[in-house]
Each structure stands twice: as structure tokens, then as C-alpha cells.
Amino acid sequence: MQEKIYFYYSNDLHSNFEQWPRVTGFLKDAKAKRAAAGDSCWVVDIGDHVDRVHPIAEAFMGKANVRLMNDAGYDLATLGNNEGITLAHDDLFHLYDDANFEVVCANLHNLKNKNPDWLKPTVKIESVNGVKIGVIGLTAPFNAFYELLDWHISPQFEALDKYITQLKESADIIILLSHLGITEDQEIARRFKDIDVIIGGHTHHLLRTGEYVNNTVITAAGKHCAFIGEVILTWDHKKKELVKKEAYTTEITHLAKDLQTEQTLQEMNEEADKLLGKTVVQLNETIEVKWFKHTEIMQQLTNTVKDWTKADCGMLNSGLLLDQLSAGDITYQDIHRICPHPINPVIVELNGDELIEVVRGSLTKDFTELKLKGFGFRGEVLGRMVFAGLDVETDFHKNGEEYVKNVSFTDGSSLDPDQTYSIATADTFTFGRLLPEVAKSEVKQYFLPEFLRDLLADTLRREYSGN
Fold it and tell me: Taking every annotated instance into account, which residue ranges of this chain make up the domain Calcineurin-like phosphoesterase (predicted)?
């Protein structure tokens, strides 16, 4: 006898709740269809379901996301870096207290005390005909952030070495829920032949029909749940082995929305409005925001970040603020609306020459007009860089391109090419190659759990109260 075993999965929703009613509708229909046929079926999530870019996620600190997953009938989940490092310690510790699904992650550890009760390194499930399945979860090791929040992510291969052998002794099939990214998933498949399926995420890759590496099928469904993934495993009970592994993704952007979920989201939005509706400051005049010009609000925010971190100088890109603040009562919801990014302040150390190169690079047309997606940035374009503690003198070439003539400190002193300086900025620039000198800095001091919008609120209270 052969038995088909089904898994449906989502990954990297990032609180894209506009799409969520379609996700719920698709999963409910799929589960009902499999139940009617008497098939084994599980629904799983691979992390980054929570993203505080959305007011609902912000107001409820991710717990509304968990409720929505409960309503959709999830059975298993692992967590991503957005759950892990954008919430304060206690908020993550209690995030899944009311989850009706199992949370599995083998490499997350609490540095304060015991792990939360909901956290399991592995989970064992069983099909209707007795096929035993071992599930392990892993998340990406952003320890520079996690450890500031009193968590630790152990190396993924260390966790796999520990648990895969154990699972092999008691399970017929082994599945990894991986919020590590495609490159890591491929390397794991090469090293661990006992893993049958890797359901992935984190790097937002879309594998329409799976990728086969050695004995393992790797799959992932992109981002924002435009696609839902499906894994179909065929177990031969006579041979006592898997005889077929299939992985597919289905685009669901055109499907009808689940009306009950839409109603729930509407109620959550209304409650979020109330929770975020406390007045932070009252403005007598509108505060203008411009992405490509120097503005007072960006200067004041950059000054705040520099002073708050006690850095020698500071720099922030104007694209961090998405809209103006109109005269009248300004609530935390307004601040979240114009600065929704899950971005933390950071100090990096650079010598004088490196700092000048960073200033030059940040004022190029290519940089200011870059439509960045990722690294925590949720805006449209990076925008013009604003500096605190530095005087930056620029001019224009005949072709209209701006260039840096001179960089000095505001007290008039020159930068020493060999001296080390501390620069406060957005943690966005410590990733990738947006500003290579920043990303390569050997000293990075992140500040958590504060987001830049928390410092924006402080700036508004201090500098604009009753303006």
C-alpha cells in the first residue's frame, strides 16, 4: 500500500495582511479537502510571519499574528528573525503562549532563564496509517542582535548533528523547517542525507517545483504569501520507504478572500487604532518631509541618534520618513505610519579616510535614488543623507552631479585619516554593500530593542512640543 502525506506551508508573510484572507481561505479549503479524503495533512509556517511594519503587528507585538495563524488552522511553525530580534525579550518569550500549533526551533536559547514552554527543538507527528515524521526547525543566527535581547542562536550544523541522529532512530521521515536561506538549505542537503525535505524561507526565494539536492527536496514560496507551498510525500508501506517526493507552489493572489478573516482583521485594525492612538505631541505647524532635500526634522532626528548613542557623529537617510506630519495631535500611530521600519540604531567605527568615503558614497545619485527593498527598510527610496556632528561641503560638476569638496567636524577640526571615529546610523547599512566601509567595520554596536521611530517620538516631544 502507498500513502500520500501532505504539507502546506507559508513563509515570509511580513504582516502583509492584505493577502492574509486569501491565505486562510486557501489553507482551509486544502485542509477540508484532505480531511474528506482521509489523508494526512499539516499546515506549517517558516517564520517572518510577524513584521512590525503593520500597525496590527505593532499594536499587539505579534500576538495578533499568532491568533490569525490559529484561526487558519496551523499545526507547526518555526520563527524568523523578525519574530526573534524585533521584539523585546519578554514579548518574544510570551509570543506563542496562546498558539494552538507547535513551535519548533532547535537553535534558539534563552540566556536569562529557562526556554519558554512553547519552544521545542523537534516535534514528532504521525500519519493516519502510522508513518512517523520527525520535524526540526532552525532560524538564522543574527547573534549580534539576539544576544542584546538575552537570546542566543547556536550554529545550525551543531543543532543538526545533535538532533538528526536522534530523529532517525525514531522517525521514518525527517523534515526541516528552515529560516536560514537558500544557500544554507543547499549546504544542509549536501551534508545531511537523512533529511528528506527542507521547507525554507528567509531569503524570499521561490522554488516553483522544488530543487533536489542529493536525497533532499528543497522548497520555498517566495515572500508575502503571493504563493502557498505544497509538499507531497509518497510512502510505500510494503517497502517501508519514501518512494516519491514532490514540491509545488501555487499562486493565490487571484483567489477569493476568506470573509471571516477579513472581519477579524477589520476588528484588529480598529483595536490597533485605539492602542496606538495616544497623543505623543501636539504640533502647531505641519512638519515637512522631503526625500531629496535637507529638512529640519531629519536633522533633529539625526542629532538625536548621535547624542543618544554618544557617537562622534551621525548619519541617517531621509527616505526613513515616508510622509509629513500635519499640524494637530500626533499619535504613535502617526509616527509608526511615517517610520514603519524595523530598524535599530547602530554605532560603527571607521577611520577618517573610511568616513570620508562613506560620506561621498552616500551623496551619489545612485545611492539617494536607490529603491531599496530589504535590510529592514520599508520605504520607497533611500533619499538624501543627513549628518550630525559633521560639516559636509559639496559642489556640482558641469554635468550636474554633486560631489563632496570637504568633510570636517562642526567645531571646525579636520578628520584625521588614521584616527578611529564612532558613527551612529541605521543598522540597514551594516548589511550588504550599500556602504561597504560600514558593512565591513569590525566594530558594530547595535542598540535594541529601540527602533528609530522610538527616537523619532523622543525628538518630537523634545523639539516640537507646542511648536
Answer: 11-205
CATH number reported for the structural domain that contains residue 171 in this entry:
3.60.21.10
CA 439, 444, 448, 450 dihedral sign is negative
Q: What are phi and psi of 123, to 5 degrees?
A: -135, 140
Q: Tell me the mean pLDDT in the region 295-303.
A: 98
Question: Closest Cα to residue 45, out of 62, 29, 69?
Answer: 69
The span from the CA of 191 to the CA of 271, in Å, is 48
Distance CA 342, CA 3 (A): 44
Chosen domain end from 247, 271, 295: 271
Residue range 374-390, pLDDT digits in tens: 899 999 999 999 999 99
Contact 229, 209 (CB under 8 A): no
- Which tens digit of pLDDT belongs to each residue from 24-57? 999 999 999 999 999 999 999 999 999 999 999 9
Q: Say yes or no: 139 and 171 in one domain.
A: yes
| pTM score over 0.70 | yes
Q: Name the amino acid, one letter, at 123.
A: V
DSSP 5-51: EEEEEE---TT-TTTHHHHHHHHHHHHHHHHHHT-EEEEEE-S----
Q: To which residue does cell 551612529 refer?
A: 424
Domain that holds residue 66: 2-271
Q: Over the chain, what is the mean pLDDT?
A: 96
